[in-house]
Amino acid sequence: MGEQEIVDVASSNGSDLLRVFDSIPGLVFVADASGENIQANRHLLSFVGQPLRDATLRAWNECIHVDDYNFFIGHWNRGCRNGQSISIVHRLLRFDGTYHWFHTKAAPVCDHLGHTVQWHGLLENIRSYGKITDELSSDAGSFRSLLEALPVPVMAALPNGQIEYANQHACGYSGLSQDDYRRFLWAADIHADDAFAFTEAWRKSTASDNGYKGTFRLRAADRSYRWCDFYGNSMCDQDGNIIYWCVVTIDVDDKLRLQKHLQVAQSRLSHALKMITSTDLSTSLAQEVNRLLSAVITRARACHRWLSPKSPHLDRALFANEGIIQDATSAAAIMAHAASVHQRTWGGQSVLDLNEIIVNACDLFTAKLRERDISLQLNLTDHMPPTWGNPPQMQHVLMRVIQLGMDSIEASNADTKQLIIHTQHRSKEVFVNIIERSTRTGYANAAVQPDHLADMDGLEVNLAACRSIIESHAGRMWTSRSGNGDRCFSFSLPIHENG
Fold first, then answer.
1. HEC profile of the chain
2. pLDDT of the residue at 450
3. The pLDDT of residue 211
4. Which long-range contacts link 145-150 to residues 24+ away (Cβ below 8 Å)?
5. Taking residues 2-30, what's their average pLDDT?
């Protein structure tokens, strides 16, 4: 069916539907696919006092209260563009010059191809909202007085999510006015990286009776972004209908920063304790081995003298030789003990799930990635065959390479910073690729060449250590660069025989 045929059918159906809608004891309308041309039933026409049945959206919008106009037209146009059901609470001008609160609902009508051909809508008169609004707008209103008494930013919203009132703490924190809140401008102060998640969570909560909770970055009055907890609960009337939402905002930025500092301090303390323990153990072992080696040297010199042809003392030489054997055996036992401790620390060989090791390693960098504004993307192949190796050593390799990638991306001063890790398997090998991607907006060549990585202190040492571990697992490690400038650290390991 062509586009013109769809329009003709929709127009024909619209006329038939209006005859049906005229018999419905409610305010009903039909709109075309674009939502621009609206036809109202006789009850809606009687309410607004307009004699014409057909009118454009602009003409009908003249009946919308001026304070609700931007909110109404924004939601209406967005719904029409996305083909999603529309739900708007607003005030509508009656023929006698008074405004009444309505809950307008509209749903798309689609053809067999899924294309929207019409919109059907219903306006429900909700007088209770007018009473709530009066309370919120009145200085003497008990509800508003209660919100003002709370020592935190609080917003009151209508059932569809439209902010109707914000207390002075909310206005002071954000630097926005009551008008800005009503026009939903406050949502623009949500950090761009959190905007989609915030909007989706808010939409799902207002579409149901579920409470709302989330942590997002909000721009404060000083234009800095701060982490805030959002809590929302609905209040219902006796019939269980949602009257309004109450949303509380709590600044937790300082708390999160303190937690990050605490994590860093704990990490440093743990490292220091390990170093102290390792140093003490190494010092003790070294002293004992040195004592035994000194004894071996002393006995060896004595044995050499007693075996001299001029004045041999074979019994003494034999006794010294036995002492040498005992001291050397003790030194060997100490070194074996040290090797055993090292082996217990690193663990033994076992079957490895590389995907699981990668996830565990990335979890350790969650706070650092967020602190540096680096996004992490994991593209892990399902059903990866297992490999064979030492889990702590493999996690150590991944952590070193991830840290190198983060340092390199951070040094690039790019606008968009991303670390990508993906796995795959071919033939008898499994592959891991850690890709660093840095881009700058507003440049002809957006890719940032990470040549600075070659100048980083300890790079070669780190890569050499990682390569040594990979090769000890019968694997390979290499670096490469794609055509768009992305640098990639890659390594492969053989698939386990029984995998």
1. CCHHHHHHHHHHHHHHHHHHHHCCCCEEEEEECCCCEEEECHHHHHHHCCCCCEEEHHHHHCCECCCCHHHHHHHHHHHHHHCCCEEEEEEEECCCCCEEEEEEEEEEEECCCCCEEEEEEEEEECHHHHHHHHHHHCCCCHHHHHHHHCCCCEEEECCCCCEEEECHHHHHHHCCCHHHHHCCHHHHHECHHHHHHHHHHHHHHHCCCCCEEEEEEEECCCCCEEEEEEEEEEEECCCCCEEEEEEEEEECHHHHHHHHHHHHHHHHHHHHHHHHHHHHHHHHHHHHHHHHHHHHHHHHHHHHHHCCCCCCCHHHHHHHHHHHHHHHHHHHHHHHHHHHHHHHHHCCCEEECHHHHHHHHHHCCHHHHHHCCCEEEEECCCCCCCEEECHHHHHHHHHHHHHHHHHHHHHCCCCEEEEEEEEEEECCEEEEEEEEEEECCCCCCCECCCHHHHHCCCHHHHHHHHHHHHHHCCCEEEEEECCCCCEEEEEEEEECCCC
2. 43
3. 73
4. 150/248
5. 62
The C-alpha atoms of residue 43 and residue 28 are separated, in whole angstroms, by: 8
* Rounded Cα distance, 383 and 386, in Å: 9
Q: Which residue has the higher pLDDT, 65 or 185?
A: 65
